[in-house]
Amino acid sequence: MSLYDISVQSARGDNMNLSEYAGQVMLIVNTASRCGFAPQFKGLQKLHETYADQGLAVLGFPSNQFANQEPLEDGSIAEHCLINHGVTFPLFAKIDVKGSDIHPLYRHLTKAAPGLIGLKSIKWNFTKFLVDRQGKVVKRFSPTASPEKIEGTIRKLLQKQTV
């Protein structure tokens, strides 16, 4: 199964396929509005604003699996993130990023890019996956890797893919 075969649901409840992002570099992040890493929303938004016209799609997938740090409902999450963090990049419906009900997207991402010592499970909010323009998962970043720290890697991938 390709990443582009995976269906996701928008915060408004619309079903869509990730093939809509074919040809773009994707930065996929599991988010939580009440997490200590929530200030990263501003950095993710800056990446979106700086590189969207070069083909970067920042995609947020809220999850409430870590200390109940995403208690809001889908529509409220996007509104909260816009008001408090200026987020305009796509935020999708809440999903499970680990466990028996793991969403197919995160099953695919964690298999393609395991974490430390080969562990596949997501350990916390704001784990980031970088996907190239062909839909290949190229790198996994820990929650502590700020958007500013990974910007150089994103820029190189965007340049590499457009040459």
Structure description:
- The chain has helices spanning 40-51, 74-85, 104-112, 147-162, and strands spanning 7-9, 15-17, 25-31, 56-62, 128-131, 137-141.
- The protein has one domain (3-155): Glutaredoxin (3-Layer(aba) Sandwich), CATH 3.40.30.
- A hairpin with a 5-residue loop joins strand 5 (128-131) and strand 6 (137-141).
- The chain starts with 6 loop residues before the first strand and ends with a helix.
- The model has no long low-confidence stretch (mean pLDDT 93).
- Helix content is 30%, strand content 18%.
- It is globular, with a radius of gyration of 14 Å.
- It is built from 4 helices and 6 strands, in the order E-E-E-H-E-H-H-E-E-H.
- The protein is of the alpha+beta class and 163 residues long.
- The strands form 2 sheets. Strands 4-3-5-6 form a 4-stranded mixed beta sheet, covered by helices on one side.
**In CATH terms, what is the architecture?**
3-Layer(aba) Sandwich
Main sheet, how many strands, which sense, barrel? Answer: 4 strands, mixed
The CATH superfamily is known as Glutaredoxin
Task: Give the SSE order as H and E letters.
Answer: EEEHEHHEEH
Helix count, per DSSP? 4
Tell me the number of structural domains: 1
Please list the strands of the largest sheet in the order they lie side by side: 4-3-5-6
Kindly state the percentage of residues in helix.
25-40%
Q: pLDDT under 50 segments (min length 5)?
A: none
CATH class assignment: Alpha Beta
Give the total of beta strands.
Answer: 6
CATH domain fold name: Glutaredoxin
The whole-number mean of residue pLDDT values reads 93
